[in-house]
Design brief:
By secondary structure, the protein is α/β, with parallel strands linked by helices. It is built from seven helices and ten strands. The two termini are 22 Å apart. It binds fructose -6-phosphate. The site of fructose -6-phosphate has 14 residues, from loops.
């Protein structure tokens, strides 16, 4: 594991953007696994600027996002599809048809999970997967559990996740209670994993995840088994 500590969110975002940009430069038709939430916003801003400056080209890139809330349509400004369009896809020259987010409005989320896993397989897997980490150790929306789940699946969100994500909604009651998330098979199958975490409140869970036992009670701890994982952590 490559564990990098930086002293500002800007430095974290720059390092993460440089790693993703390198991937695009080395393989222009790469498959990027992408995340939402507050952590990657700075990274996406820098990638958009690099693209506008002609330093990177997204025209052959395909993307697959980790997760989506159940029941939120793409035009809902809290949906992860909306987030991705706003923070990255509308700002770079990616072909929107090559951007994929699980469909949280699919009538059968189990079937949607199967479709999503088949799609990732057809694409030849993920070249680099960007991850954040939840305060309870979740990656994607893989919440603490008795076992790790391999497939893309629907999940009931933990109270701590609902509370943490309430900051993006008008009220906590508006936070969806269910989501669909990529499972550990696609995440661990990514050729490279890049996890970014910032803030004092993430310190304890980052320590548990990367220096504690591997357990489904701390879902991110499974990444200790991945052979190419970079963690960028900023405590400030
Ligand atoms: C988002 C996702 C989540 C977030 C995590 C951290 O697509 O998969 O696992 O990465 O909840 O969120 P932030 O970055 O808002 O602290």
């Amino acid at each position: 594991m490559n564990f990098i500590t930086v002293d500002s969110y800007e430095a974290l975002s720059k390092k993460a953007a440089d790693i993703i940009a390198s991937q695009i430069i080395l393989k222009k038709d790469c498959v990027l696994g992408l995340a939402t939430g507050s952590s990657p916003v700075g990274t996406y801003e820098i990638l958009a600027k690099m693209c506008a400056d002609g330093k990177i080209d997204f025209s052959c890139v395909t993307s697959v996002n980790l997760d989506e809330y159940a029941g939120l349509t793409p035009d809902n400004d809290q949906s992860y599809r909306y987030f991705m369009n706003k923070n990255l896809f509308s700002k770079v020259n990616i072909d929107i048809a090559k951007t994929h987010v699980p469909d949280g409005c699919a009538p059968d989320l189990t079937k949607e999970g199967e479709r999503y896993d088949a799609l990732i397989e057809e694409l030849g897997g993920i070249d680099i997967q960007l991850l954040g980490i939840g305060l309870d150790g979740h990656i994607g929306f893989n919440e603490p559990d008795e076992f790790f789940t391999a497939e893309t699946h629907s999940v009931k969100l933990d109270e701590s996740t609902i509370e943490a994500n309430a900051r993006f909604f008008e009220s906590i009651d508006d936070v969806p209670r269910e989501a669909i998330t990529m499972g550990m098979k696609s995440i661990m199958g990514a050729k490279k994993v890049l996890l970014i975490a910032n803030g004092k409140n993430k310190k304890e869970i980052v320590e548990k995840a990367f220096f504690g036992p591997i357990t489904p009670k701390v879902p991110a701890s499974i990444l200790q088994l991945h052979k190419d994982v970079t963690v960028i952590f900023c405590e400030n």
